[in-house]
Design brief:
The protein is of the alpha+beta class. It has an eight-stranded antiparallel sheet with strand order 1-2-3-8-4-5-6-7. The termini are far apart.
Length: about 300
């Protein structure tokens, strides 16, 4: 890595530490104020409903999914940083994926070339495409697209000439302007057989690689680190709040008391079935007894007999 790259990484790391340090101070003060309000009983009803409701168990699925997503995101970030620092690409089996950064193979620059080789159109790709390459291949074939190493980058161009005796290869990009008898040699030097590391399979995923190109930049890495930092810190804050709520629940909730849902269900009066019969048409009829109200209490048996005597 160059000195400018090292300085940029150090500056970004320092800014990241400062920003998350200030954010953590703010979150800590919020947690302290919340703990004080909980101790004063401000959220007692909400705490009882949260820890003694059947619906609270369904929140476990969301917690597992969030931790799983965070683990995958952190794994991708660490893998990307390690392979980026080593200057290598992640290979799975005999294949690897490369993100195209230039438009040298997006179309034909020379119309004569388009007329002479229309089949080349199938193996062209554009900026932001994710292309699948083979890491193990036997012989080189002129007209196929290969990837060869030039310093710390991979050049993916079409093979025009291959001298099997000397091992020298001549590559050209379909969309690059080349004067007569000029190839990649004029720009990148002589390419030999041992410099070629990838062979294009013809498979690609268009446009999605633009996000990966952004993630590989300094600001993209900073953004990804910020997302991971916010996710981790939010989980820490949630854990602290959950710990405060559980401690308060142990104080205000007594084991002999029934949960709020059961109490609310018992408070609802159940109607008493008085009679039940079927009509001639087969429909079922149920008659429920009317419950006495506080304003008009039901009469006793003696009161009913006295009323009949008066009549």
């Amino acid at each position: 890595m160059t000195s400018i790259t090292i300085i940029t990484i150090v500056v970004v790391a320092l800014l990241t530490v400062i920003i998350f340090g200030l954010a953590w101070l703010g979150w800590s003060s919020c947690i302290k104020s919340y703990k004080m309000e909980v101790s004063q009983g401000k959220y007692d009803d909400a705490i009882l409903k949260e820890y003694h409701s059947k619906k609270s168990k369904s929140g476990l699925v969301g917690i597992i999914c969030s931790y799983l997503a965070l683990t995958i995101l952190a794994g991708l970030f660490i893998t990307g940083v390690v392979y980026k620092a080593r200057g290598e690409n992640l290979a799975i089996g005999n294949q690897t994926a490369l993100v195209i950064k230039t438009g040298s193979m997006s179309d034909y620059y020379d119309k004569d070339l388009a007329d002479k080789h229309p089949e080349y159109k199938i193996s062209q790709f554009d900026i932001g495409d994710i292309c699948i390459f083979e890491t193990n291949f036997n012989d080189l074939v002129e007209g196929e697209v290969y990837g060869y190493k030039y310093k710390d980058i991979i050049i993916t161009h079409r093979l025009w000439k291959y001298n099997r005796e000397t091992g020298c290869c001549e590559f050209r990009g379909d969309n690059n302007f080349y004067p007569e008898n000029i190839s990649d040699v004029a720009y990148y030097g002589t390419v030999y057989r041992e410099d070629i590391v990838y062979h294009y399979t013809g498979k690609k995923i268009p446009c999605i690689g633009a996000f990966i190109l952004y993630a590989q930049s300094i600001f993209g890495i900073w953004s990804l680190a910020g997302i991971i930092g916010v996710a981790v810190s939010s989980e820490i804050v949630y854990y602290q709040i959950n710990k405060i709520n559980k401690a308060r629940d142990n104080i205000i909730y007594k084991p002999e008391e029934k949960p709020i849902e059961e109490v609310e269900q018992e408070e609802k009066p159940k109607k008493k079935l008085k009679a039940k019969f079927k009509r001639r048409d087969g429909t079922l009829v149920e008659i429920y007894a009317k419950e006495p109200t506080a304003e008009a209490p039901s009469k006793t048996h003696e009161e009913k007999e006295g009323a009949e005597d008066e009549k």
